[in-house]
Write a structure and sequence with these properties.
The chain is mainly β and 126 residues long. It is built from no helices and eleven strands. The mean pLDDT is 94.
Length: 126
């Protein structure tokens, strides 16, 4: 069992920055891939980025490369999402999720993740 709690969302103007945090508790050593997804109103949940605990490998969707950075503090069991140069189209509820790196299936598929946080709202005004 893994419990995930996101924080750090809010309202920001276009071009601004926010940092989201996801604190994990429980059997985090098993579910060692942490991902960030987002869901805008009326849209499907979308992969943003993911990081592996074992070697720190990072996977990101093209739309956030160069703007968003994922990192993790293994000692604190916390994953961060630094978001820079935010745009109105980044507005969404952001979720963190956990899965094993030994599962088959792309890290970008929401269905391959076992545990999800409650989400945190990010709103970017133009």
């Amino acid at each position: 069992q893994v419990h995930l709690v996101e924080s750090g969302g809010g309202l920001v103007q276009a071009g601004g920055s926010l940092t989201l945090s996801c604190a994990a508790s429980g059997r985090t050593f098993i579910y060692s891939v942490m991902g960030w997804f987002r869901q805008a109103p009326g849209k499907e949940r979308e992969f943003v980025t993911a990081i592996k605990r074992s070697d720190g490998s990072i996977y990101s969707t093209d739309s956030v490369k160069g703007r968003f950075t994922i990192s993790r503090d293994n000692a604190k069991n916390t994953v961060y999402l630094q978001m820079n140069r935010l745009q109105p189209e980044d507005t969404a509820v952001y979720y963190c999720a956990a899965r094993s790196e030994y599962y088959s299936g792309s890290y970008s598929r929401p269905g391959t993740y076992d545990y999800w946080g409650q989400g945190t709202q990010v709103t970017v005004s133009s």
